[in-house]
Amino acid sequence: MKQHVALLLLGLPILAQVNAQPAASAPAKLIVQRDIPYAERADPRQKMDIYAPEGAKNLPVVFWIHGGGWQAGDKTNVMIKPQAFADKRFVFVSTGYRLLTNVDMRAIFLDVAKSVRWVHDHIADYGGDPKRMFVMGHSAGAQLAALICSDDRYLKAEGLSLDIIKGCVPVDGDTYDVPAIIWTVETRLCVHEMPMPKFGHRVKFGNDPAKHRDYSAVSHVAKGKGIPPFLILPVADHPDVSAQAQRLGAVLKEAGVPNKVFGAKETNHNKLNDNLGLPDDPATKALFEFVGESLTGP
């Protein structure tokens, strides 16, 4: 009130108060390109959507892999992430991939690698920098992200190396160590005398112990492979995903790969994913801190 009186005595409008707050910056205008095929004679699922802030040029890239148990979900399931990353001056790519049971698990891995290759070759045309790419995914997409960023055979088959990836962010995955999660789930069902799922992880990953090991990111972590830094985001109070996150983090640490496990509290599997991008969300803060450090680090 005293400030108001002083301003009036000076003949100045009240709107000119010294404690007025500056207006928040406007959200970036998104330029969206949908259904871009990344394979010849592409299956409808072998397409991607690209979200870029207007005027994008040589910006870092987020390569997002949706979840859905490898048998559902869609590249459009991105919630608020494209806008949140565009506001931070990133190009956001959401890829599709073929699903079980139309193809087997390995075909999905090959789809993701082929999609990464397309982004590497063409993202500059959409304002992105192919040398500053982050691979991220939720749920089944977390398994795919972690595997592509640790088992370099898939990118090598596309003529690429892990060096193009600046960081990996698997979000609430439970299959970084497939044999371990199969044992955990099946033991729990046995103790409670419940029937085994007809299409559980054992079957999805090929019903072959050798494949279960081979499709686990922890099986491929090793020194000297150029594996990028990891930020692993599990739901803190879910024992299965927390155990898997800690297992992956420990293996990465042993191999000398920088990583952090950030357990998100007071959330759940879907909410954690849905809220990524909200300014006050703790997991989002950890995410943007991670990408910032990865871009400015060695």
Helix content: 25-40%
| Total of DSSP H or I helical runs spanning 4+ residues | 11
Output mean pLDDT. Answer: 92
> Could you tell me the strand content as a percent range?
15-25%
CATH names the topology as Rossmann fold
Care to give the gist of this entry?
With 298 residues, the chain is α/β, with parallel strands linked by helices. The protein has one domain (28-177, 216-296): Rossmann fold (3-Layer(aba) Sandwich). It has helices at 2-9, 81-87, 105-122, 140-148, 153-156, 178-191, 201-204, 209-214, 239-254, 269-275, 282-296, and strands spanning 30-37, 47-53, 59-65, 91-95, 128-138, 165-171, 230-232, 259-261.
Topology:
Layout: H1 2-9, E1 30-37, E2 47-53, E3 59-65, H2 81-87, E4 91-95, H3 105-122, E5 128-138, H4 140-148, H5 153-156, E6 165-171, H6 178-191, H7 201-204, H8 209-214, E7 230-232, H9 239-254, E8 259-261, H10 269-275, H11 282-296
Parallel strand pairs: 3-4, 3-5, 5-6, 7-8
Antiparallel strand pairs: 1-2, 2-4
Would you give an account of this structure?
The protein has helices at 2-9, 81-87, 105-122, 140-148, 153-156, 178-191, 201-204, 209-214, 239-254, 269-275, 282-296, and strands spanning 30-37, 47-53, 59-65, 91-95, 128-138, 165-171, 230-232, 259-261. It is an alpha/beta fold and 298 residues long. The chain has one domain (28-177, 216-296): Alpha/Beta hydrolase fold, catalytic domain (Rossmann fold), CATH 3.40.50.1820. The strands form 2 sheets. Strands 1-2-4-3-5-6 form a 6-stranded mixed sheet, with helices on both faces. Strands 7-8 form a two-stranded parallel sheet. The longest helix has 18 residues, at 105-122. The chain is globular and about 60 Å long.
